[in-house]
């Protein structure tokens, strides 16, 4: 179930937030002055200063607050406006679209880091690979996968989006949809056997989903990948269907239910923050 687009995620450091005022001592403070580009430093100071003024600020005020000579500030401000990092309106400077893209990109990185940390914790707690997926725009979207070399994720040997009927994550997501949405999905991605254990057709899958219910866990034995068993639990994240899942080798099937129950307990404690994951 891991692909180039759904590769295992690993915790990353959070992006450094802009800092105003004196710089703290540290590795950057020890950088030889000759290797730094002064104009870039000054431009960054102006950007940080503008970001601190919700209603904009004039060039003279920005020059004064950053300690820059007014001609230097004017030159840098014009350059930043030209590049889209600032915009000027009625003599006041505001953050531009380019700076806002940087900000939103940093927020996405922070959310991905949050996902990575949560998945890694659940992986270690359950002792199994963990998958997080949502149903978005009519398709299965695996947001994150976290495994270890000792407990690798299932290899996606058949297109994961087209085989939702065959794996626990897909069945769990489809179970949360209404009947019309389920039938629409199966019209676009018909249920066909992936292994000899896979549900044989659409009507058979729909009957199974009705029995499982929208709030129930889903257990799958070798329906997507021979030698692998999976369990998925539904998550209520706003109006979006979402699911967490684990997988284990079939010879460890006795661990599947206890690991799934552990995952449910762990996820319940962070359910409020899962809404952040949807916007990834």
TrEMBL record:
Keyword vocabulary terms for this entry: DNA-binding, Transcription, Transcription regulation
Alphabetical list of SUPFAM superfamilies matching this protein: GAF domain-like (SSF55781), Winged helix' DNA-binding domain (SSF46785)
Chain ranges passing through the membrane: none
Record has Hydrolase as a keyword: no
InterPro entries registered for this protein in UniProt: GAF-like_dom_sf, HTH_MetabolicPath_Reg, Tscrpt_reg_IclR_C, Tscrpt_reg_IclR_N, WH-like_DNA-bd_sf, WH_DNA-bd_sf
Tagged with keyword DNA damage: no
Domain of life where this protein originates: Bacteria
UniProt xrefs under PROSITE patterns: HTH_ICLR, ICLR_ED
Residue ranges annotated for the HTH iclR-type domain, each copy included: 37-97
Domain called IclR-ED: residue spans: 91-280
Region (Disordered): 1-34
PANTHER family tied to this protein: HELIX-TURN-HELIX TRANSCRIPTIONAL REGULATOR, ICLR FAMILY, HTH-TYPE TRANSCRIPTIONAL REPRESSOR ALLR
Protein name: IclR family transcriptional regulator C-terminal domain-containing protein
The organism of origin for this protein: Streptomyces ziwulingensis
